[in-house]
Automatic annotation (TrEMBL), chains A, B:
Pfam families found in the cross-reference section: LpxI_C (PF06230), LpxI_N (PF17930)
Domain LpxI N-terminal positions: 8-137
Protein name: UDP-2,3-diacylglucosamine pyrophosphatase
Top-level taxon of origin: Bacteria
Transmembrane feature ranges: none
Organism of provenance: Bosea vaviloviae
InterPro entries assigned to the protein according to its UniProt record, in alphabetical order: LpxI, LpxI_C, LpxI_C_sf, LpxI_N
Residue ranges of every copy of the LpxI C-terminal domain listed in the record: 141-276
Lineage: Bacteria, Pseudomonadati, Pseudomonadota, Alphaproteobacteria, Hyphomicrobiales
Length: 280, 280
């Protein structure tokens, strides 16, 4: 999708990615408006960039503000604790949107996210992915730090990605851990960090043998995952977790996983003695 | 494989299955010899049936005893904590077999099991699966108790088995849990019980919503799994675990998963209000 050059709104949840994206967008010389979601985004982390805070129940006010500023392009980025419908405390200008969100809330996270995207699109906004605005926040081809995967590790990585592809029709399997010549963990509802912890526990209890330089984490988007609002991501904690679990490194689908500041993550990888590599 | 009618040896590890198999084999009116592996099998659980105990390091003695009794057919059944090679304490008559087992020990559990089967086959024995001797120890088609899967649950079950089949080329994925219209857990190295506990934790922490009557466990052999020595199994603990996790029931590949005493398991399923069903 081509990126329009009018003003851009960033609707920001928690974590490192929203401030990083805002910084890059600000440097692109286009109008920028940052809407920070109360309870998720920390306005102090955006430095010089002006931030306006909204509660989820102030959606009507947010729409009015976007329109008044003639903003048609927006990015939704950052973590958001799944809100309870009852905690929305909608303002009067938001009440009319409740039926839309009541429907969106009745389903999984994917369903909710699709509902949010549709909500903005039906009102004339274009929803962009962070990778369209700032591809430098995704993992590139090759290693981020000094270490790269060995040929033996690349074999495990290839097998891991082939397995994730085989799972694609089943809407599951965004990540897996391979070690000891086999797949030792597959992620489903528990999330990547919990899966890595499981591998660490299996290893420390002796039920799983991970030789030095053996284990790898592979991570990729699910087929059909909407990369505009639901791009897989790793960060410093992921690196620390895999190092603690005794794994050798992480392989990611190049351009399709958010990593934030590549240089910072590469330096952390070097400190921890692990590799982070984008592969196609 | 046709079952020869000469005397049969049961080489027994731990758990409910070895005594159950011994009881059935004894009723079949053929000669029976039960070799209980020290530290795994409990001779007291075999009731009236005579049992001879062997340490792993007494393999030479076991082979001599089998030959003296003119036994050509054997079944290996029951759990065995993965022994450390150093703890074998081999007797003189066993020393010559050490190179074979040193090789078998250098690999995963599958590799070790294949090595054990080959060891006996190379010495003229026929290794049978418990399902050949006693198909009544496996799950039949249909429900074991009063409850059966609903049409909605059958849809989840079909999706679960399709997913396990898709994983077949990757030598992983013997079980999965489906709930809330999706796959919520896939088993790899952690084992079925640990996977069920994970689902229970996700549900109790509110990260996963399992409506009453929603969740199902599916379990099947891996492609290429040697059902003679490595048949998947469930037991009373599996039922208690899924009930505790709030799941509605268990679906198993009919004839290809050990359940032990079908009547007992069906009654427990009824007590717990869950279903256990064999499907093809």
């Amino acid at each position: 999708m081509a990126v329009a050059r009018g003003p851009l709104a960033i609707i920001a949840g928690g974590g490192d990615f929203p401030p990083a994206l805002a910084e890059i967008a600000a440097r692109q010389g286009r109008g920028l408006f940052v809407a920070a979601l109360d309870g998720a985004a920390d306005p102090a982390r955006f430095g010089e960039i002006e931030v306006t805070s909204y509660r989820l129940g102030q959606l009507g006010r947010l729409l009015d503000d976007l329109r008044r500023r003639e903003i048609a392009d927006l990015v939704l980025i950052g973590s958001l604790p799944r809100p309870s419908f009852g905690a929305l405390r909608p303002e009067a200008s938001t009440l009319k949107y409740l039926p839309h969100f009541a429907r969106a809330f009745q389903g999984g996270d994917d369903h909710l996210l699709r509902g949010v995207v549709r909500f903005f699109e039906e009102r004339g906004f274009r929803v962009h992915g962070p990778a369209e605005i700032a591809p430098e926040l995704t993992v590139p081809m090759g290693a981020l730090g000094r270490k790269a995967a060995t040929p033996a590790q690349h074999e495990l990585i290839a097998r891991g990605f082939a397995m994730l592809s085989a799972l694609a029709p089943f809407d599951v399997g965004q990540a897996a851990v391979l070690a000891d010549h086999r797949i030792v963990a597959i992620e489903a509802a528990e999330g990547t960090d919990a899966m890595i912890r499981r591998v660490a526990e299996l290893a420390s209890s002796g039920r799983l043998k991970i030789a030095k330089g053996d284990g790898v984490l592979v991570k990729a988007p699910k087929e059909g995952q909407d990369l505009r609002v639901d791009m897989p991501a790793i960060g410093p904690d992921t690196l620390r977790n895999i190092a603690e679990a005794g794994l050798a490194g992480i392989a990611l689908r190049a351009g399709r996983v958010l990593v934030g500041d590549r240089g910072k993550l590469g330096r952390l990888a070097d400190q921890l003695g692990v590799f982070v590599e984008g592969v196609i």
